[in-house]
Amino acid sequence: MKRRGRGIACMWYPIGFTVDANASAATVKVNEDGTATVLTGTVETGQGSLTVLGQIAAEALGIATDDVHVVSADTDTTPMDTGAIASRTTYVTGNAIWLAAEAAKAILFETAAPMLGVKVSQLEARDRKIQVKSFPQRNVSIGEVAHRSQVVLGQPAIGSASWNPPTVAMDPETGQGKPFATYVYATQIAEVDVDDETGEVEVLRIAAAHDCGTAINPMLVEGQVEGGISMGVGMALHEEMLFDANGRHINPNLTNYIMPTSLDMPEIAVDIVQGFDPTGPFGAKGVGEPTAVPTAAAILNAIHDAVGVRVTSLPATAEKVLTAIKAKRAAEVKQIPA
Amino acid sequence: MIDVTIVVNGETRRASVPPETTLLKLLRENFALTGAKLGCDVGDCGACTVIVDGMAVNSCLMLAGQVNGRNVTTIEGLATRDRLHPIQKAFEDTGALQCGFCGPGAIMATKALFDENSDPNVKDIRDALSGSLCRCTGYTKMIEAVQEAARVLRSESRNSSHTRELKVTAP
Amino acid sequence: MKAFGYVAAKDVGHAVALLGEYGARAKLLAGGTDLLVELKFAAHGPEIIIDISRVDELKDISISDEGLRIGALVTHTEIIRSPIIGNLFPALADAAHSIGAAQTRNLGTLGGNLITCVPSMDSGPTLMALDAQVTSASRSGLSQVPLADLFVAPRKTSLQSDELLTGIIIPKANFAKPAAFQKFGLRKGQALALVNAAAAFWIDQDKDSFVQPRIALGAVAPTVIRAPRAEAFLEGKAITDEVMAEAGRIAATEAKPISDFRASADYRRDLVAVLTKRALQSAYARASNKVRESVP
Amino acid sequence: MNDDTKVLEREQLDLAETLRRSDVDLRLPAVVPREPFPIEPLTVDARQQTHAVGQRATRLDGRLHGLGQTKYIDDLSFPGMLYARIKRAGIASARIKRIDTSAAEAIPGVMAVLTGSEIPVNSFGPTFQDQPVLADPIVRHAGDGVAAVAAVTEQIANEALAKIVVEYEPLPAVLDPVAAMREDSPKVHAPNSNIYATKVVRKGDIEKGFAESDRIFEARFSTQMIEHVSLEPHAAIADWDANGRLTIWATIGRITLARADMARTLKLPMSRIRIIGTIVGGNFGGKNEISQEPALALLSKKTGRPVKGVFTRGEEFTATTTRHPIIMDYKTGVSNKGRILARQIRLVLDGGAYCSWSATTLGKACILSPGPYKIDNVVAEAFVVYTNKTMTGAMRGFGAPQVCFAYESQMDDIAKALGIDPLEIRLLNAFDEGSSSPTGQVLHSVVVKESLRKAADRFGWEPRS
Q1: Residue range D16-35: average pLDDT?
Q2: Domain C179-291 homologous superfamily, CATH
Q3: ipTM, 2 decimals?
Q4: pLDDT > 90: what percent of chain D?
Q5: Of A104, A212, C112, C227, which sits 20 to 30 A from D341 (CA to CA)?
C-alpha cells in the first residue's frame, strides 16, 4: 500500500568565502557605438554565468543584455578570477564587473558632462543614454559619448577593477570569526509516496523557496533550483559509489550508478524569496550550490512522515526503507502485551 | 575496411571505415557532424541520440555497417537556414538547456516522440526523455519546452492544412 | 573496440550459412544494445560480426495455425506498438516497455534479449508464463523447443554455435490468456530488474477460480524460472487477495536469489512475494475489465 | 627478414592505409554538407531591455546549444592531433616495482609513453600538493594513473595501455574512515597521520547548555560517496609549440588556478602557459582543478603534436573527485517548548586518497553543521581523513547537503517528540536579521523564515492536530 508523507527542510549557505583570498578582476570596455565588451576569467560551465554577468554589466551601463559581449576563460586575454566555484560568480565576479563597468561609465560621464552642460554627479546612464538625473529629456546617446571619448578625446571608456570579499580570519581555537561575506537561505518541502510492501519511495512534488538576494535572471535561478533538486533526489534515494573489499569501484558506470532520469523527478514549484544584499551586485548573492542542499533532508523527513521510520544513512534505497518498516513492525508486535 | 553510404540530413555521404567504427564515430570523425556527443559510450546517457529511419537510437550502440543505406537525421539536420526547428526554439526560449551537452540528444529524442505522437502528455514526455540523462536541469524546463514545442507544431500543422485547403478550393 | 571483420547477412539462409562457416568465432549482431557494450569492454573481439539486422524474414509478428509468431528481430518498440500483441498479450507490451529507454527499445530485439540469457531479462518471464516456444535454424534444419529449455545458465543458452534463434511462438491455446508483468528496479527510468515476475491463468467463470496458472520469475535464479509450487497451490483455488498473497509467499520460497551490490537475497525474496501477488492481481483485474468491456 | 618483422611491416602498411583512407574521407566528402546557421532573430524581448537586472533573458549560449554547435573540447581537433589514454592502477594501495612500456612503445601508431618519473614536479593540489599526476611509486587508490600513452588513434592508445606491464607490491589498504583515524591504521601518505585537516567551532558553554535543556537528542547520520556526473567527461587538448609555449584547452572551471598548477608541475614560467576554458558540459565542483593536463602537455612536448585526452565514463567515477561521505554525530539539547539550547556535533569526512578541496569542504561542513538556527551553545568538531579510495573534493554544497540531512532529520525527530509542528519548530529557532551565527558572525539579509513561510504556502502546509 502506498503511504503519503510530507517533509520540510531549511538551510543556510555561505556566499563569498573569506577565509582565503577570493578575488575576481574584470575589464569592461564600452565600444564606440555604445555596446560593451566584458573580459572575465571565469568559465561558463552551464550555470549561465556569462548571461548573468552580461546582465550586470548592462544594468550598470544602462544598456541591454544584447548590447554586451562577454569574453571569458582565457588566461592570455582575460583577468584573473578565482573561478566557477562555491556559488561565488554572481556575487564576487559580478561585483568586479559592476565596479569595472562603473569605472568605464565614469569616463563616459567625464565626456558627457560638458556635452550636457552639467556636473558629472548629475548624470545617470539609462536606456542607452546618458541623461541628467530628473531631466531625462536632456540626454545624449551612450554611443555618441563613447565615440567622442575614444575617437575625439582619446580617452577610451575602459574600466578595470577587482573585488575581494572583506576578509576576517577565524580564531583557530574557537572558530569564531567572519568566514563568509554573506549567506543565502532556503526551504524545500517534499511530498512522497512510500510503498510499504517494497519500500519504494516516489517523490511526487517539491516546493522550493530560495533566497539569492536579487535574482539577476529569475529564469536561470529557477533552472539552478530545479537542477539542484535533481541532485538532491539522487542523493536521497539512489546514488552511491560502491567499493569492494579491495577498494575497487563496483559501479563505475551509469547503468549501476543510479542517477535520476526524467521519470524519477517530481513536479517542482520554485519561488524566489525576495531579498537584497547591499554587498552584492544590485543586491544579488548566489544560488548555484544551495539548491542541492535541503532536498535530501526534506525527502527523508517525508519518508518519516509517511511510514514512521527514520533512515539515518543515505541513500534511502527501497531496501533500506523496507528493512526499517519491517523493524518497526517487529518492535510494535513486541510491545503488545501477551 | 567497409564502405558505407548513408543519407545524412538529406545528403548522401560515403566513407570507408574499419568495421568496428560506431555510427557516432562515423558522424563525428568522418562527417564532421559533432552535434551528437559521446557521454558514456554504452547507451546509458543518450547524448549521442540521432534518428535512423525515423527511430531515435543511441549512435554509440550502432556500427557504421548497420546503417549502410539508411537514413540518418542528426541535430545538424533540424534547423534550416531560415529558421530554427520549433523544438530548438522552445528549448532556447524556456532555458531548457544549461551546460547543453545533453541537448542535441534530448532534442532528437523529442523529435522522434513528435514523429510518433503530436500531442504527448507529461507522462509520454518523461518517458521519451528518460533515455537522455541530464544533470543540470532536473528535466523541469526541458519538459516545459517539449510541451511548448508540441503546441507550436500542432498549430503550425493546423495552419498549413488550412492553407492547403484554400489552395485546393481556389479557382 | 578491438578490430573485427563484418559481414551483413541477407536472409536466414545466408545467416545460417555464415554461422555454419564461422561458428563460435563469430558474434551475431541483431539490435546491438548488449553486444556493442560487451565488445567495447572485451579484451579480445570476435573474428567477425555477422550483422543479421537486415534479415526481414525475422521481423514479422503474425498469427498462424500454431499461434502467435514473433520474429527474433522484432524490436521492443515494435512489440509495444503491435495491435496484435496489444490485443492478445498486453503483458508482453508492458514487459517490452519496461526495458531501457526509447533509444534502446528502438534498437533492441526480442531475440537479442532472450539470447543474452541474463537472469534479469524482461522479455523472458511473460513469454514463459504463456508457454512460449522458441524456434531456431541451422544447417541441419529447423527446431523448436520450449522457451524454458533455451535458458541454461547466466549468459548461456542451449543453442549450438551454428544455430540461429528465429523467433518465438505463443500457442494458440493461450490466446488472450489473462497475464500481467511486474518489475521492480532501482529507479523508474532505464531500470534493470532487481526482480521481475509474470503471471498468467485462465479463470473458471463459474467458480471464479484459477485454471492453468503460470508464474515466472526473473533475476532471482541463474535463469528465468517458473514457480511450480505456487502454481500448484493456485490451481483450482478461488481467486481472492489472500490466495494471491499466499502464492506470492510460496513463490518467494522457490526463488534462489543472490546478494549483490544492488540488493540482498532476502530483499529480492520479499520482492518476489509482492510482485507475484501484484502480477496475479493485475492479470485478474485485466481479465475482469475485459469481461466488463465485452458486456454490451 | 624474419617473420616478426614481416608482421610489423604489414601492420604498419595496414595502418598507413587506414589513415590515408580516413584522410581522404575527411578532406573530400562526397557532398559538401550544408551548415545550418539560422538567421531567425533571437527571442530578444528580455535581452533588449535596458533594465537588464531581473530580466528572464535567454542564455547567451542557448542558441548554439540547441543547434548542436557549441564546441566542447571533444568537438575540437587539430592537424596531426594525437589521442591520449591513461593506464589506471586498478589496485587501491601498492608500490610500483617496475613499469615496462617497451611493448606499448613498439606498437605502430604509438607516439609516446609517459610515466610519473618524467614529470618535473609530480604533485599538485589546491590546498596540499599531495596528488601525483601519475603515481610514482606509491599507488593510493585504484583510479590512480600509472602511465599515459599518446597514439594516432584512440583505439591504438587503448591497445597500448593493455601492453604496459606494471609490477606492484601490494600494500595494506584502509577503506573505512573511522578505522583510518586509528594510530595503528595503514597510512595512506606514510608517515603522516591519516587525519589531514581538522576544524572546530565553539560558542557559549556547551555543558551549561545541556544542563539547562529539558530533553537531549542524540543520533548518528551518515552519507554516501557521490559522483558529479557531468554529462561531458573531463577533456583537454595540450599543444606545446616550437616556441616552448603551451596552450591547453580544458574543461576546468578555474583557469587562473589551473595555470598556476601547470606552471608548478611543469616548472614553466606562467607567461609560457595559456589555458583556454571552452564552454564546459557540467561542473558541479568536479572540474575545479587540473588532472590529466600535465601528462597531456608532456606527451605533446615529447611528440611535437597536439594531444587530446577525454576521460571514459569509468574514469569519471574512479579517477576524478567525488562528494565526501560524512559520519555525523549530533547531540542536541532543547527546552520543552522546542528551543535549541545546545548542540554538539562531530563530523568525520572520508577524504579519499588526496586532499583536493577537502579542507574547504571540512570548513564549510563544520561551520554550517548547527543549521540556520539561533543556538547559544555550540561545539562542532570536524576531521577529514585519508582512505585508499577515490579522492573526495568539491561538489555542489561542499558538505552542506550532508549536514543539512543530519540537522534537519534531527529537527523533525525533536518536533515529533515534543509534539510541535515541523514548520513551527523551525520558525521558533530560525535566524533573524542580526542573529549571531555559530562563529559569532552577525548575519544580515536573513530571510530563512520568509523562505519557510513561502515554501509552506506554495506546498499548502497545514498543521496537523
Answers
A1: 44
A2: CO dehydrogenase flavoprotein, C-terminal domain (3.30.390.50)
A3: 0.96
A4: 89
A5: A212
- Under an 8 A CB cutoff, do D274 and A74 touch? yes
> Tell me: the pLDDT tens digits for D413-423?
999 999 999 99
Tens digit of each residue's pLDDT (9 = 90 or more) over D268-285? 999 999 999 999 999 999
Comparing alpha-carbon positions, the chain B residue that sits nearest to D72 is B101
Of A288, A267, A227, nearest to A15 by C-alpha is A288
* Chains linked to C by 3 or more Cβ pairs within 8 Å: A, B, D
Is it the case that residue D91 has pLDDT exceeding 60?
yes
For residue B33, give its domain range: 2-77
Rounded to the nearest 5°, which phi and psi values hold at A319?
-65, -45
Task: Name the phi and psi angles at D248, rounded to 5.
Answer: -125, 125
- What's B145's domain CATH number? 1.10.150.120
pLDDT digits 0-9 by tens, A53-81: 999 999 999 999 999 999 999 999 999 99
Is there a contact between A187 and D455 if contact means CB atoms under 8 Å apart? yes
d(CA A105, CA A112): 10
Which grid cell is C124?
Answer: 523472458
Closest residue by Cα to residue C69 from C133, C159, C15, C115: C133
Binning pLDDT at 50, 70 and 90, where does residue B115 land? very high
Mean pLDDT of D340-369: 97
User: A330: which residues sit within 8 A by CB, 6+ positions away?
Assistant: none
D65 in reach of chain B (CB within 8 A): yes
* Cβ contact, residue pair A50, D443, below 8 Å: no
Sequence spans of domains, chain C: 5-51, 56-174, 179-291
A265 and chain C: CB distance < 8 Å anywhere? no
Question: Measured on CA atoms in the order A172, A177, A179, A184, is the torsion positive or negative?
Answer: positive
- Angle at which helix C265-294 crosses helix C241-254, to 10 degrees, equals 140
> With an 8 Å Cβ cutoff, are D66 and B95 in contact?
no
Residues of A with a catalytic annotation lie at 289
Provide the 8-state DSSP code for A106.
H
Residues across chain B? 171
Bridge partners of D197, per DSSP, are D384
Contact A75, A39 (CB under 8 A): no
- What fold does the segment set C5-51 form as a domain? 3.30.43
Task: Name the band, by pLDDT with cuts 50, 70 and 90, for residue D14.
Answer: low
DSSP string, B109-161: HHHHHHHH-SS--HHHHHHHHTTS--SSSTTHHHHHHHHHHHHHHHHHHHHHH
- Burial class from Cβ neighbours inside 10 Å (0-12, 13-18, 19+) for residue B171 reads exposed
CA distance linking residue A309 with residue A329, whole number of Å: 10
> Which residues of chain B are at the A interface, by a Cβ-Cβ cutoff of 8 Å?
40, 42, 44-45, 94-95, 98-101, 125-127, 129-143
Give the whole-angstrom CA distance, residue D73 versus residue D82. 14
CA–CA gap between residue D62 and residue C252 (Å, rounded): 52
Predicted model pTM:
0.95
Angle formed by the axes of helices B122-129 and B103-116, nearest 10°? 130
pLDDT digits (tens, 9 = 90+) for C59-79: 999 999 999 999 999 999 999
Query: What pLDDT, in 10s, does the model give residues D322-346?
Result: 999 999 999 999 999 999 999 999 9
How close, in Å, is residue C127 to chain A by CA atoms?
Answer: 25
D221: cell is 547520520
Report the CATH number at residue A117: 3.30.365.10
Grid coordinates representing D271 are 607567461
Q: Which residue out of A262, A265, A291, A299 would a mutagenesis test of the B interface target, given it has the greatest number of B Cβ atoms within 10 Å?
A: A262
Give the domain range for residue D198: 177-227+321-459
Domain holding A78, by residue range, is 24-161
- A244 half-sphere exposure, CB direction, 13 A CA radius: 11
List CB contacts (< 8 A) between D323 and chain A: 235
Whether C1 sits inside 8 A of D155 (CB atoms) is yes
Contact state of B100 with A268 under an 8 Å Cβ cutoff: no
